[in-house]
């Protein structure tokens, strides 16, 4: 099973975005598609419509909306992040059903 793509909605000045990227890189993620919502208001609207949230980061692993940095850390603490990053099914990540 191949590793899913990682997409992160972010802004330039966001310490939680930096921390989320740092955690993902520490887990071996080499490619993160960043969508800068501070530069693209339409992207912010899309993020809010898709996630129901206004804050960044908003992180997707494949098609699954993980949530923000706190949600990512919760997955790590629960021992589920590695499986999710490996593309394995883990049930509802951080309480969120799969998006799509």
What's this, in brief?
This protein has helices at 15-26, 41-51, 69-77, 81-85; strands at 6-10, 32-36, 58-61, 64-67.
Written account of the structure:
With 100 residues, the protein is an alpha+beta fold. The chain has one domain: 3-Layer(aba) Sandwich (Glutaredoxin), CATH 3.40.30.10. The chain is 37% helix and 18% strand. It contains four helices and four strands. The chain has helices spanning 15-26, 41-51, 69-77, 81-85; strands at 6-10, 32-36, 58-61, 64-67. A four-stranded mixed sheet has the order 2-1-3-4, with helices on both faces. The chain is globular, with a radius of gyration of 13 Å. The chain starts with 5 loop residues before the first strand and ends in a 15-residue tail after the last helix.
Helix content: 25-40%
* Structural domain count: 1
At CATH level 2, the architecture is: 3-Layer(aba) Sandwich
Strand content: 15-25%
pLDDT average, as an integer?
91
Distance between the termini: 20 Å
Could you name the CATH topology?
Glutaredoxin
> Quick one: how many beta strands?
4
**Could you say which structural class the secondary elements and strand pairing correspond to?**
alpha+beta
Number of H/I helices: 4
Secondary-structure element series: EHEHEEHH
Descriptive key words:
100 residues; four-stranded mixed beta sheet; single chain; alpha+beta; Glutaredoxin; 4 helices
SSE layout and pairing:
Elements: E1 6-10, H1 15-26, E2 32-36, H2 41-51, E3 58-61, E4 64-67, H3 69-77, H4 81-85
Parallel strand pairs: 1-2
Antiparallel strand pairs: 1-3, 3-4
């Amino acid at each position: 099973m191949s590793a899913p793509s990682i997409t992160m909605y972010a802004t330039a000045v966001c310490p939680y975005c930096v921390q989320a990227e740092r955690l993902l890189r520490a887990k071996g993620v080499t490619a993160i598609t960043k969508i800068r919502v501070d530069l693209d208001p339409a992207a912010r609207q899309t993020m809010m419509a898709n996630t129901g949230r206004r804050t960044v980061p908003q992180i997707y692993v494949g098609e699954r909306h993980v949530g923000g940095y706190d949600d990512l850390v919760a997955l790590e603490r629960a021992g589920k992040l590695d499986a999710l990053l490996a593309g394995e099914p883990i049930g509802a990540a951080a309480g969120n059903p799969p998006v799509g």
